Amino acid sequence: xxxxxxxxxxxxxxxxxxxxxxxxxxxxxxxxxxxxxxxxxxxxxxxxxxxxxxxxxxxxxxxxxxxxxxxxxxxxxxxxxxxxxxxxxxxxxxxxxxxxxxxxxxxxxxxxxxxxxxxxxxxxxxxxxxxxxxxxxxxx
Length: 140
Known about the structure:
Number of strands: 0
Distance between the termini: 53 Å
Number of domains: 1
Oligomer: single chain
Low-confidence stretches: none
């Protein structure tokens, strides 16, 4: 008797907690993707900065200064494109995360909704009426 009660309680707890565990896994995966994205972006921006500093270090005369300044327009353009691409990727990562959480929440709500009670069949109703001793009278 107690075994059945514990098994039923465990099954109910599992049904309640599984969506939460799934959401935690989704969040953990998202945080890992964001961290990877940030590390990669930091690496690329650092490389760009170091390249720019090295180019600045190479300025020795007016011609190399002019070349450096001319190249800075290209650097600024590529940096703007990189920032724009990174912002779009970041938005897409967060959008995907929100969609996954929404899907997970919808699934958990669907499984948590109470199921409608089954209607008794005519046979069960007639047995129930006979067992209570009630009879149906018809008027003529």
